[in-house]
Amino acid sequence: MKIKFFLRLVFSIFIVLVSCEDNSQALKEINTNRQDPLGIAKNIRMVYSDSLKIQAILTAPKHVDYSNLEFKFAEFPEGLEVLFFDKSGNKNKVIADYGILYTETKLIDLKGNVELKSYDGSLLKTNQLFWDSENEWLFTEQKFTFQDEKYDFYAERLDGNKDFTKFLTGNLIGTVAVSEEQDTLNKN
Fold first, then answer.
1. Cβ–Cβ under 8 Å, residues 106 and 137
2. Backbone angles phi, psi at 136, to 5 degrees
3. DSSP secondary-structure letter at 29?
4. Residue 103 vs residues 72, 135, 153: alpha-carbon distances, Å
5. Which of 43, 47, 62, 163 fits 78 for a cystine, CB–CB 3.0-4.6 Å?
6. Torsion-angle region of residue 6: left (phi > 0), alpha (psi -120 to 50) or beta?
7. pTM of the model
8. 3-38 tens-digit pLDDT
9. What is the assigned CATH class of domain 34-140?
10. Weakest-pLDDT range from 29-38, 55-64, 73-82
11. How far apart are CA 48 and CA 58, in angstroms?
């Protein structure tokens, strides 16, 4: 009887051990491919400074942090507002319905009702705007409007610096102030 019990026990253990397989590699692969955020924050206010001088203030109803992934980014799925200050301390504002900040490249992708309002009254409106914060450059392939003292136009595609002193666009429709200088070569 003891031998039968012992044989059943050994057989049962053998069956259990044989039927179990090592799933640790499969679990590692599943966890590696997960795209879960590191954290989610509500009603955030981030202050960016350099040498004790405030550069920008970002506020958003929701911030989703994906800095745990290989290609790190932060998402603002419910919109955002950024106040940024130039070297003279002038306040400029950007608002959008959605934003994503790519940490490594310092590229910001703004989407939906994007407005860039400058302290001097200029206004850029578009549906998508990319901001290269490293080079202080902005660009879009979308249609946009721009208004200030010198310009009031509608165009498609924009590639320019933050001050709009250097920019390229697609076909322009609207008013552009042009100053004409007198030709000094033909003076008699």
1. no
2. 55, 50
3. H
4. 6, 14, 33
5. 62
6. alpha
7. 0.71
8. 665 556 555 555 555 555 555 665 555 555 668 888
9. mainly beta
10. 29-38
11. 8
Residue 99: which of 90, 87, 112 has the closest Cα? 112
Say if residues 73 and 101 touch (Cβ distance below 8 Å).
Answer: yes
Whole-angstrom Cα Rg for the chain: 29
Q: What is the chain's percent helix, strand, coil content, to nearest 5? A: 15, 50, 35
Domains in the chain: boundaries: 34-140
For the cut 80, the answer to whether the pLDDT of residue 47 exceeds it is yes
pLDDT value for 87:
80
Instruction: Count CB atoms within 10 A of the CB of residue 101.
Output: 21
**Residue 21, both tokens:** 């397989």
3-state secondary structure of 122: coil
Helices and strands (DSSP H and E) totals, the chain = 2, 12
Query: Cβ of 70: how many Cβ atoms within 10 Å?
Result: 6
Residue 114: pLDDT band by 50, 70, 90 thresholds?
very high
Between vectors from CA 23 to CA 17 and to CA 27, what angle results, nearest 5°?
Answer: 155
Q: Is the pLDDT of residue 142 over 60?
A: yes
